[in-house]
Amino acid sequence: MILLEVAAGAGLAKFGAAIGAAIAVIGAGFGIGNIGKTSVESIARQPSAAGDIRSSMILSAALIEGVALFAVVVCLLTLFF
Amino acid sequence: MALYLFLSKQAEEVRGEKMDVKEIIFGHLADAYEWHVVEGVVLPLPCILYSEEQGFDVFLSDKLEHGEEYRGYHIDAESGKIVNKAGVRPLDISVTKNVAELFLVCLIVCSVVLSLAFWYRRHGYLSAPGGFLGMVESIILFVDEDIAKASIGHGYQFFSRYLISIFLFILTCNLLGLLPVFPGGANLTGNIAVTLMLAVTSWLAVNVFAPKAYFKEIFWPKVPLALKAIPLMPTIEFIGVFTKPFSLTVRLFANIMAGHIIILSLTSIVFIMWQVGDLLGFIMNFVSLAFIIFMNCLEILVAFLQAYVFTVLTANFIGMAQHEE
Predict the structure, then answer these.
(1) Distance from CA of B22 to the nearest CA of A (A)
(2) Cβ–Cβ of A69/B251 closer than 8 Å?
(3) How far apart are the first and last CA of chain A?
(4) Of A55-59, B15-19, B140-144, which range is least confident?
(5) pLDDT at position B325
(6) What is the pLDDT of residues B221-248, one digit of tens each?
(7) CA of B254 vs chain A CAs: smallest distance (Å)
(8) CA A60, CA B309: separation in Å to the nearest integer?
(9) How many CB atoms lie within 10 A of CB B285?
(10) Nearest residue on chain B to A64, judged by CA atoms?
(11) What domains lie within chain A, and their CATH numbers?
(12) pLDDT tops 90 at residue A56
């Protein structure tokens, strides 16, 4: 009986980790997609500012991706420790 | 067709062996006491240990391979570290794979930058180098003008030295991490100890050289008295001093380690599929190859991007500290 619970607990940890990573990635996808959308629109409004806007876009995307990867690292920690 | 027959014969020979994917992936990500250059060629690295009973012990790590014991030390099977007979770790300042790679990266960065400096000494300051040195110079100017000067403004030259060094170091580490063989092959920026130390140096660059106004702004910010008296804003600002380098650490570490894990997993898929069946393995060969090429190109972009983001954020923090008014 106890063995069954322990086995269920281990499986639950993997399940939680996988779902957590997936949700974090969905959030990152939404965020970075938003950045892409608004940056492309603002380049369309003012093409001469394309260089500045492009670098801001890349910087913001990298920062948001950092946060998503925090979540992935936490999920990996629950999987392996 | 010939390729298929050749590969399926190879697969037949190793079909019985079970493949431990987790061990392969973590073996590539973790540190080690020797350096596997190619299959069968192993570079032993010096182990430098100190314990109170025995004093200093310096020997090459091939004395300890395959679990042998030497001078009372052996490699603990579970943790992969050197322990003495009682299972206690001595003071371990060995040159491991990551340390050797660190030396190699420093050598590469120093030689590249110094060769640019010597080019100018030889050819005078009125001409410009072309080729590889021209590219290096354009990278250094990019960090100097677009990152340091834009973020720090007045007095940027002092910090520009540190920012250029850290940009070139992280870039070289990231790019070398993508190579599977000798000069690359060590997971350096994917190791949280290395990125932690990089973040600590950035933290020192921000806080050691910050004027008094910066610390005054942290502990007595210009906000309404209600937020200052219960120390709400000062607490938040003080915690912010430490969360900024923490986020620098984790961002670089997670990005690079995730990239390495993805590429290693995609490579392992090929072998797993060959174990399942011949046709599946053959198809996955090419599908996985396409994915691996795509992921490697993405990882090159990530290498540049992460170096840039680390440097830009450090420059921003330095600029905010220096110009606190």
Answers:
(1) 10
(2) yes
(3) 24
(4) B15-19
(5) 63
(6) 888 887 777 888 888 888 989 999 999 9
(7) 6
(8) 9
(9) 16
(10) B251
(11) 2-80 (1.20.20.10)
(12) no
Mark out chain A residues that contact chain B at CB-CB < 8 A: 58-59, 62-63, 65-66, 69-70, 72-73
Across the interface, do B254 and A58 touch by the CB < 8 Å criterion? no
Provide DSSP, A27-74. Answer: HHHHHHHHHHHHHHHHHHH-GGGHHHHHHHHHHHHHHHHHHHHHHHHH
Selection from B6, B19, B1, B5 nearest residue B276 by Cα: B19
Assess: ipTM above 0.85.
no
Nearest residue, CB atoms, A69 vs list B258, B305, B312: B258
Closest residue in A to B192 (Cα–Cα): A73
Query: Are residues B53 and B43 in contact, defined by beta-carbon separation less than 8 angstroms?
Result: no
Query: Strand, helix or coil at B84?
Result: strand
The answer to whether the CB of B46 falls within 8 A of the CB of B94 is: yes
CB contact under 8 A, B251 and A73: no
**Residue B208, both tokens:** 């050691």
The closest of B69, B106, B309, B304 to B199, measured between CA atoms, is: B309
CA of B294 to nearest chain A CA: how many angstroms apart? 19
Beta strands in chain B (DSSP E): 34-38, 41-44, 46-51, 55-60, 73-75, 82-84, 91-92
